[in-house]
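Predict the assembly for these two chains.
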Amino acid sequence: MSVLSIIAFAHRIAEETPVLDKDGHVTTHSWILPENAEIIYGGISSLLIFFMLFKFGAPAIKKSFAARTEKIQKELDAAAADKSAAATEAATIRQAKGDIEGERARLLADAATQAAAVLEDGRVRLAAEVVDLEAKGVTDIASAQGRVGDELRAEIARLSSAAVDHVVTGSLDDATHQELIENFINRVGAGS
Amino acid sequence: MSDNRIEGYARGLFEIARAEGTLDVVEDELFRFARSFEGSDSLRSALTDEQIPPAKRQAIIEDLLGGKASATTTQLVAMVVGSGRGRDLPAIVNNLVARASSVKHQEVAEVRTAVALTADQQARLGAALVKATGKQVNLKVVVDPSVLGGIVATVGDTVIDGSVRTRIDQLKSRL
């Protein structure tokens, strides 16, 4: 049966005799119900529209729902992964906290050990420095003694020189000058 | 001053003194004046000060040597000082003395004593130095109080030191 034959069949069923009012105007059969043709054509159109919607709209809607479902699933999966990662991180932090305590204890132990070593080293170094200072002090004292001795000898020499100058120049009278000159002349003359 | 200029001045002074016939006297006086010039800072600064006019410097020479040295010596020194060559006076005089000694085939014998020597002592000392060095000597006596006593004689590169100053210095070194 073709579409045209269906339409023709429907037309025959819907074909009605027009109803006239007392003035001769065409009017409806019922004050509330539509005409038969309107019911038939409207019903067919509605079925056709529902069919079209089911045929073409349903896959798109179904696809849209599927996509939305997939998106929601992904978000749920991501939330679950985040939760798992957070749990892992929390476990790591808790472990790290435990490690920090251990590290603090280890550092404190190391610091105590190093402090003890530094203290011992300082004691040894101080003892060595004391020995060096004592030796240097002894050397400085000996040097100062020598220097004072040298200065004393230099002062004695200076005073002696001044005394010699004073005595010699004071004793050089004319007779001595002449004697020195004569001795020089005689010595040079005899020395050839 | 360059050696050539010093030699030029010395040759000029030498020729003037020889022409005057007073070479021995002038040479001796110049030598003694040069030694005094070297030994006196105030004299040296006065005669070499460029701020003092040449006439003033020459007047100083006249005051110092006038009546004590021959006129030729005084004029020659005044000429050198007046020409602004006072700083080179000792070198000029030494060159002149060496030149005069060379002419006389002698070696300059510089003798420093604390007191002046008599003529007899100079003669005997000259003879002794001739005997000691084997050279004819042109004796130049300088009275130098820093010697204190005795004599220091320098003939060329030979130094014969019999001064009290040297003996005291040696004693001080030992002390």
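Chain B has a mean pLDDT of 88. The beta strands of chain B are 107-113, 137-143, 150-155, 158-163.
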